[in-house]
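Many introductory courses stop at the sequence. We go one step further.
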Amino acid sequence: LAVGNVIGDAWLVAPELGDAEVLSVLRREVLGGRLNPARARAVIEVISAWPLERIPHRVLAPLAWEHHRNVSAYDAFYVATAQLYQLPLITADGRLARALESTAAVQYVHVG
């Protein structure tokens, strides 16, 4: 995974919904014929092995709400996680990175 090159051995945190979002993307790609089901399973195994701390939504919701005018609720949970731990938000979502340029530390990663 290209993102693995950016994160290296870093300590990783993400909102709990990250797992569901990854599976959603993999499902869409498999059903669209752009990703082999075996490759999707391999991606799930790799991500499951990452030392990722998953942060409960109830902890993040108040901080996430502060971003309701600029980003989706889903994205706001990622922003809140980064802010809570005073870490940069690493994202492959160019639209999100642009929306946060002036309000949060963002590192855009081009995947593809």
